[in-house]
Design goal:
Strand order of the largest sheet: 3-4-5-8-9-10-11-12
Number of helices: 23
CATH class of the largest domain: Alpha Beta
CATH architecture of the largest domain: Alpha-Beta Barrel
Largest sheet: 8 strands, parallel, barrel
Number of strands: 27
CATH topology of the largest domain: TIM Barrel
Bound molecules: flavin-adenine dinucleotide, NADP nicotinamide-adenine-dinucleotide phosphate, iron/sulfur cluster
Shape: globular
Number of domains: 3
Length: 675
């Protein structure tokens, strides 16, 4: 065992059972839970993670009844007939030496269903359906449904259940007065409002007996106005322990909160302080969570006494062997979750199966695989951006002889630009991972080499993978060559001076990132918890309800205007779960956004434009930064094809439109698995 992470790797004795370490894989809805036919895939997904050494896993949420559905006909465990499909999951996990709990999740007013219910009939700001207020009898029936679901989970072979009491779902909706206006024994005083979770835990314990893990996910920080006070949270935690819970997990922020809680711009372990506070008030193990993606960070939290266990969810999508690698002294080979949400949560919220940007196999364990090659080939991969890195490392792992060329002095392509944007510092980890994997898999790396087609042809490669990425689109505009015009590469890579008044042409992902970079000054809030808390209004003193106060962001470093030709809302194409964060962050920096423009020229005054047939307008500025999209770079293709060299295009060199690292890495993987 690596002594570096001894606190994380230490067993945890729960009395009737022992967990082999302190790592818990938190609940994630992958999209495989909803249909019985997908359970073999779900079983393979969990088995792979159990094999990777995580002590305890929690499934995605299963509703205890139809009213608790997240979406119509979604995951639910309320009938005996639904037990059988789960047996394959629990058997697969137990065969690999793991343990697994089923999460019971009643969505309440967050249910995307006309049947949804809540404490009162008050619609949530993020859901289209107005809930029906449960009758008094209905509340008693729902408690029975939780107990029934737990008993069925036990029959299905689960080691326990997690009762979802946070993130603004059903139970949370009973706890606070703005969603609970009831006058019966389930509303009014806090003792009445907290009766529901306490009775649920009691009923589940009674149904499942003493030797069954009950995790209660406690909303320790609501991060909404009129959320719970700290005293109420402690009182509830203590009552949950007395009711028979085994472990208290941490919940951070209701889904409707306007504070980022898991995006990459949230500092690592930003909320472990609140779990530490709770730990002083209960005697059962507590679990810290949110933006913990590194074994050292996890270990430190336990060592300083903030928690007994660490919940990591997305980090196990990114790398199923996280624990195994940490324990065997190979932490530098952990494929770190970069918190982007692009392939996991963004997929969930678009009704697609979750996977992972840095690990396209996640949730595709039975479908996306590669095997050792029977015919080792000499392969050149040109370009060491995300697509080329993914292709080269998989090819070498399969047994091919691989040369990886890049014209730059370092690997990473555009990720070297992305990692310099405030809030995207995690992107560095992907490059660290690939750097180590290149060495481990025996890829021959050639940096500072702009390889030509002649060189590739004369070196006798059997196959060439072109991963040469993109070149930024140039502006075709009067004044595009003015001295005040810079490209995003000039700004980030060449660090050319940028004036105080800036106009940004283009409001895609890169335009937003450049605005973020130019608006901030000093340490990035994503690297400093106190600065982050001030920026977003998290009250670490917990003097206010929900620990939510007025945000007091630092003033903007510059006066910025972003423009786009489309009429649509700025940032429409940004991530489903992160776009609002980018927009809110730039709003706090007073960034002006102008859509529907027609650029006319750039001159000493600034950027001139019109809107429809309106009067000419100008953004007076010292610098114009061009973020106007990208074009494929595939200079070598024609010559290679003329010489009949088998050539594969991946990432930006295949198609620049709609390119992101998710596609680049997946394409590199797919091509490499077929050669
Ligand atoms: P590239 O990353 O462009 O890599 C191509 C490589 O080929 C380069 O290293 C280049 O030097 C090399 N090369 C080119 N020609 C030759 C040659 N002839 N010989 C040798 N080497 C050559 N994507 C996301 O998914 N999420 C994000 O949050 C995100 N943020 C971003 C932020 C910024 C500021 C930027 C600029 C990009 C961001 N992206 C993001 C986009 C993402 O980085 C790209 O989609 C991804 O890097 C594309 O990968 P690629 O391998 O196809 O190309
Ligand atoms: P993009 O998202 O396609 O945006 C390009 C912007 O340039 C658009 O706002 C477009 O708006 C404008 N534009 C296009 N042609 C133009 C022209 N001829 N003159 C002036 N403006 C023009 O591309 P990007 O911002 O360069 O990003 C590249 C890729 O990286 C994207 O595909 C993106 O997915 C990825 N990326 C992702 C993230 C992320 O957070 N997920 C972050 C950064 C980058 P109008 O045409 O309306 O003017
Ligand atoms: Fe992490 Fe991004 Fe992968 Fe989601 S898609 S698990 S956030 S790296």
């Amino acid at each position: 065992m690596s002594s570096n992470y001894k606190h994380l790797l230490e067993p945890l004795d729960l009395g009737f059972t022992t967990l082999k370490n302190r790592a818990l894989m938190g609940s994630m809805h992958t999209g495989l839970e909803d249909r019985a036919r997908d359970f073999p895939k779900l079983a393979a997904y969990f088995a792979e993670r159990a094999r990777g050494g995580v002590a305890l896993m929690v499934t995605g949420g299963f509703a205890p009844n139809i009213e608790g559905w997240l979406s119509p006909f979604g995951s639910k465990l309320s009938k005996k007939s639904e037990v059988k499909r789960h047996l394959q999951v629990t058997k697969a996990v137990h065969d690999e030496g793991g343990k697994i709990c089923l999460q019971i999740l009643h969505a309440g007013r967050y249910g995307y269903s006309p049947l949804c219910v809540s404490a009162s009939n008050i619609k949530s700001p993020i859901s289209p359906f107005k809930p029906r207020a449960l009758s008094t009898k209905g509340v008693y029936r729902t408690i029975k449904d939780y107990a029934n679901s737990a008993a069925l989970a036990q029959q299905a072979g689960y080691d326990g259940v997690e009762i979802m009491g946070s993130e603004g779902y059903f139970i949370n909706q009973f706890l606070v007065t703005h969603t609970n206006k009831r006058t019966d024994e389930w509303g009014g005083s806090f003792d009445n409002r907290m009766r529901l979770p306490v009775e649920i835990v009691k009923a589940v314990r009674a149904a499942a007996g003493p030797n069954f893990i009950i995790i209660y996910r406690l909303s320790m920080l609501d991060l909404i106005e009129q959320g719970s006070t700290w005293e109420e949270v402690v009182k509830l935690g203590q009552a949950i322990e007395a009711a028979g819970a085994t472990i208290i997990n941490t919940g951070i922020g209701w889904h409707e909160a306007r504070v980022p809680t898991i995006a990459t711009s949230v500092p690592r372990a930003a909320f472990s302080w609140v779990t530490g506070r709770m730990n002083d008030h209960v005697s059962i193990p507590v679990v810290a969570t949110n933006r913990i993606n590194d074994p050292q960070v996890a270990n430190d939290i336990i060592e300083r006494g903030d928690s007994d266990m660490i919940s990591m969810a997305r980090p196990f999508l990114a790398d199923s062997d996280f624990v195994k690698k940490a324990a065997s002294g190979n932490a530098e080979l952990i494929n770190t979750c970069i918190g982007c949400n692009q392939a996991c949560l963004d997929h969930t919220f678009s009704g697609k199966r979750s996977t992972c940007l840095v690990n396209p196999r996640a949730c595709y364990e039975t479908e996306l695989n590669y095997t050792p090659t029977t015919l080792s080939k000499k392969v050149a991969v040109v370009g060491a951006g995300p697509a080329g890195l993914s292709a080269a490392t998989v090819l070498a792992d399969r047994g091919h002889e691989v040369d990886l060329f890049d014209k730059d002095e370092q690997i990473g392509g555009q990720f070297n630009i992305a990692k310099k944007i405030p809030g995207k510092e995690e992107f560095y980890e992907t490059l660290r991972y690939f750097e180590n994997l290149i060495k481990k898999n025996g890829v021959k790396l050639h940096l500072n080499q702009t390889i030509s087609a002649e060189q590739l042809i004369s070196s006798g490669y059997d196959e060439v993978v072109l991963a040469t990425g993109i070149r930024p689109r140039q502006l075709d505009l009067d004044g595009a060559d003015h001295s005040k015009v810079l490209s995003y590469i000039d700004v980030v890579v060449h660090k050319k001076p940028v004036g105080h008044r800036v106009a940004i042409i283009g409001a895609g992902g890169i335009g937003f990132d450049i605005a973020e970079l130019l608006a901030h000054q000093g340490v990035s809030p994503s690297l400093d918890v106190q600065k982050f808390n001030k920026e977003w209004g998290v009250d670490e003193s917990y003097d206010s309800r929900g620990a939510y106060i007025m945000a007091s962001p630092e003033p903007a470093a510059r006066q910025i205007t972003m423009l786009q030709r489309k009429q649509s809302k700025m940032g429409k194409g940004l991530g489903k779960t992160t776009g609002w964060i980018h927009r809110a962050s730039l709003k706090m920096k007073n960034v002006q956004m102008i859509s529907g423009v027609n650029y006319t020229k750039i001159d000493d005054r600034g950027l001139h434009f019109t809107i429809q047939d309106g009067e000419p307008q100008v953004v007076e500025c010292d610098t114009v930064v061009v973020c106007a999209g990208q074009l494929s770079r595939r200079d070598l293709l024609d010559e290679l094809q003329t010489h009949n060299i088998s050539t594969h295009l991946v990432g930006g060199s295949k198609l620049a439109g709609e390119l992101d690292a998710k596609r680049a890495i997946r394409e590199g993987f797919e091509v490499a698995s077929l050669i």
